[in-house]
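In the design runs reported in the main text, the only information available to the sequence generator was the tokenized backbone. The following block is the verbatim input for one such run; it is reproduced so that readers can re-run the procedure and compare outputs position by position.
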């Protein structure tokens, strides 16, 4: 009973920290009056150290429980990209170049595999090549907690200290919205509904930003739970149900708008398909 009570207290504390983080996001420099529509590109990170066996098993139709077991067996703190994952992201730089034209903001999960993918797709040093011949694009970069993977239990879901991230990644990244230590990771796996809610709050945050074209680099779990399972998120696309989950380093572009007033509007994402 004591363990159960302690676990509930830790989980409650974790959720309070997420709420505090969200309130901080809403009062951040760069925020503006909520707009009704903007363009958002979502990318899942490249293959990471905990992915290969689990993803292969998922492709063969394993259960979600078996998928988690395999990730647990291959678990490592804040899993980095594999060699394949780095190549996937580097290929994305040219593959997604057209999509990235006019990009104003890069938003990333605080996990290293997402940050590295963002930097390899949209180079912070050289910028994004302007295919029309003008100056390269150098979008602002912002790290937020809302788009991190389903949290807890797995070490690959635990992030590094803020100072360590600042030392590891380009100085154009703004890490000011995350705490020094990972205050939300616990030994209990976050519920899918709570993960979906974080993603929903992240979408509301994006809609309050002044930028009109944003790249978000996140994770397969939170993208699925938010876009497919959250009752206040509607995705309009032509994808069959078995193609809803993002592949490693896959990019999808959406026109995003909010419908309804109040603090919890419906967020509608309409996929913009390649012609």
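Verbatim output:
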């Amino acid at each position: 009973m004591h363990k159960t009570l302690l676990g509930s207290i830790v989980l409650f504390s974790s959720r309070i920290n997420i709420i505090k983080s969200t309130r901080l996001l809403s009062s951040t420099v760069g925020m503006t009056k909520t707009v009704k529509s903007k363009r958002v590109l979502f990318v899942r990170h490249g293959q990471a150290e905990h992915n290969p066996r689990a993803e292969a098993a998922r492709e063969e139709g394993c259960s979600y429980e078996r998928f988690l077991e395999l990730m647990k067996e291959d678990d490592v703190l804040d899993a980095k990209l594999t060699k394949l994952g780095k190549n996937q992201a580097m290929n994305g730089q040219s593959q997604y170049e057209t999509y990235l034209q006019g990009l104003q903001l890069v938003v990333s999960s605080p996990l290293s595999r997402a940050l590295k993918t963002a930097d390899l797709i949209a180079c912070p040093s050289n910028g994004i090549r302007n295919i029309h011949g003008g100056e390269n694009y150098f979008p602002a970069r912002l790290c937020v907690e809302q788009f991190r993977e389903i949290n807890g239990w797995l070490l690959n879901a635990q992030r590094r200290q803020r100072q360590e991230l600042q030392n590891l990644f380009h100085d154009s990244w703004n890490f000011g919205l995350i705490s020094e230590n990972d205050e939300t990771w616990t030994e209990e796996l976050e519920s899918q509904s709570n993960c979906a809610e974080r993603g929903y709050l992240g979408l509301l945050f994006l809609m309050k930003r002044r930028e009109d074209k944003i790249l978000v680099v996140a994770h397969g779990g939170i993208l699925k739970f938010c876009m497919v399972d959250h009752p206040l998120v509607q995705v309009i696309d032509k994808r069959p149900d078995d193609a809803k989950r993002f592949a490693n380093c896959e990019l999808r572009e959406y026109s995003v708008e909010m419908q309804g007033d109040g603090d919890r509007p419906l967020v509608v994402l309409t996929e913009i398909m390649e012609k």
